[in-house]
Amino acid sequence: MLDPKLLRTDLAAVADNLARRGFVLDQAAYQALEDQRKGLQVRVEQLQNQRNVKSKSIGKAKAAGEDIQPLLAEVESLGDELKAADTQLDALQRQIRDLQLDMPNLLHETVPDGTGEDDNPEIRRWGEPPAFDFEPADHTDLGAGLGLLDFEAAAKVAGARFAVLRGPLARLHRALVQYMLDVHVREHGYTEIYAPYIVNAAALTGTGQLPKFADDLFALGGEHEFYLIPTAEVPVTNLVRDGILDAEQLPLKMTAHTPCFRSEAGSHGQDTRGMIRQHQFEKVELVHIVRPAESWDALEELTANAEVVLQRLELPYRVVSLCAGDIGFGAAKTYDIEIWLPGQQRYREISSCSNCVDFQARRMGARWRNPDTGKPELVHTLNGSGVAAGRALIAVMENYQQADGSIRVPAVLQPYMDGLQVVTA
RNA sequence: GGAGAGGUGGCUGAGUGGUCGAAAGCGCUCCCCUGCUAAGGGAGUAAGGGUUAAAAGCCCUUCGAGGGUUCGAAUCCCUCCCUCUCCGCCA
Prior knowledge:
The structure is a single chain. By secondary structure, the protein is of the alpha+beta class. The protein is built from 13 helices and 18 strands. It has helices at 4-9, 11-19, 27-63, 69-76, 78-102, 139-146, 151-157, 167-187, 201-207, 233-237, 295-312, 359-364, 389-399; strands at 122-126, 149-150, 164-165, 191-192, 198-200, 219-220, 226-228, 243-245, 252-261, 280-290, 317-321, 333-341, 346-355, 366-369, 376-378, 380-388, 407-408, 422-423. The strands form 5 sheets. An 8-stranded mixed sheet has the order 1-11-12-13-16-10-9-4. It is elongated and about 100 Å long. The two termini are 51 Å apart. It binds one RNA strand through helix 3 and helix 4.
């Protein structure tokens, strides 16, 4: 959520910033609601004040043994007017809040212009795409050839956009997760978190998935309003909701491995082949909760932490800065890490690292006590994949494939595979 | 699933219809005293919001959430959520 004060004092500047994303902010409509709110709120508070003052005097008079009847008559008429005005104010504030919850975050000044994926400038590149003396296969054919990756079996038990992994391939997938967690915990100073895979609407509103993107989520039926998490960002970031952290507790660096569940409602027909885009995938997530002054450094650190995982796996990648038209709802700035996939002969997203500044913190009520002011202030939140395990598996399969269809096991993963060096049928 | 207890400020914890936004303690900040340290004394210290260009001031809201009763609710009534204890069931 954006700062309501900023919306009140500089609506035009906010609209200009959001326009870069292609978001149209109806200034006139918002301003009209805001103007109504202002008058009404002042009126309501005046009435409440009158009621309080008179009620207090009744209490005093009663204690003094005086006749309170005339005072009661005086306050009688207040009630109805207050109630009516209050109901109206409540509805107005709800409308304003709904508009605010729908507004994306302000873009940082360094976010490049652009309308889509193709406009994301490359920041840096690491590694060289491997040269094969044969025609490299994609992971779908590789997996099928090995008999270890099975989409038909998954369709039988679930449906489209699910996968079944078997034997050493399933283990390689698990090895990736263990390896990534170990790197972040041992070397990057993260605290490992195990958190719920099912969350409530308040948590999803806190991180920004709700109310706007309900269609992207799997909602559970039943008496509770529960949802499957689309990313560990939701349960982990929300750990600091509705609280005031001590300055010494910051920065908080947390990592968690969870499955992620996405309806992919808007992506019919995209990436239907293979396990690039699934309803269920595993991910190791990185979350930072930091002092506002440190969040831009933290974004660089978090991104670098994710990159280390790929460097050790010796997987070629590049980092792009998401342009205004491609960046996510809650992010002020995002770096995507894209991995080289020989099967597709192009780079594909494997990690998305964002600084959300105070956008999520305001929705969550996540604050810290600033020792300089002694006052609670909003923290900044960041999150990024460190990295997506499903896509990392694909990348390993395609980059480490051999002419006979087998897959070499990256050196850093071999300890997690009982020393296995090659995955074969 | 059954029975009971409880949810109050950064934390612990009093408070059962009116000068209660809330005692006390802890923590924190400032000051005094004490020639280091320790101890002692005093003062201050909830959050969110409105008004304002901003501040001060003034005002409003908040004692798990939402309704209700009342001139007035932390306190009474209803619904819901959560935590704890015991029983049952269960990985």
